[in-house]
């Protein structure tokens, strides 16, 4: 049995982090504000935006929700992760 690949900082994590950062900036929010709104620590926001892949799923989901993003996965698309803004959330960012 071969060794498991180290996915703690994969290209998908980096792509997700870049999308989260771009969305936060487009909304004019600071990392601190997003952390407060999501009920997570500032460190988590920083780690997600920098592609660290060891965050808990529940915290990642909270963060993406605050940013009005959802994660789409497709079978066989292991080299491609799409992060799309929710249309309704773009008009009304959470307060």
Give a written overview of the molecule.
The protein is mainly alpha-helical and 95 residues long. The chain has five helices and two strands. Helix 2 packs across helix 3 and helix 2 (31-38) crosses helix 4. It is globular.
What is the secondary structure topology, with strand pairs?
Blueprint: H1 11-26, H2 31-38, H3 42-49, H4 57-66, E1 69-72, E2 82-85, H5 87-91
Antiparallel strand pairs: 1-2
Which features characterize this protein?
95 residues; mainly alpha; 434 Repressor (Amino-terminal Domain); two-stranded antiparallel sheet; 49% helix
Summarize this structure briefly.
The protein is mainly α and 95 residues long.
Cα end-to-end separation: 50 Å
How many strands, what sense, and barrel or not for the largest sheet? 2 strands, antiparallel
- Helix/strand order: HHHHEEH
**CATH homologous superfamily designation:** lambda repressor-like DNA-binding domains
CATH topology: 434 Repressor (Amino-terminal Domain)
Structural class estimated from helices and strands: mainly alpha
Average residue pLDDT: 81
CATH class: Mainly Alpha
> How does the overall form come out from the CA principal axes?
globular
Spatially, the strands of the biggest sheet line up as 1-2
* Strand content range: 5-15%
Secondary structure tally: strands: 2
Enumerate the spans where pLDDT stays under 50 for 5 or more consecutive residues.
87-92
